[in-house]
Amino acid sequence: MDPDFRRKFPLLVAGAFQEISPATSSYNCIAWAAGVDHIPWWPHLDAFWPAGVPYEDTIDAFLKAFATLGYTLCGDASLESGFEKIALYADFGGTPTHAARQLPDGTWTSKLGQSIDITHKNTIVLNGPEYGAAVRFMRRPRADRSIITP
Question: What is the pTM of this model?
Answer without folding.
Answer: 0.90
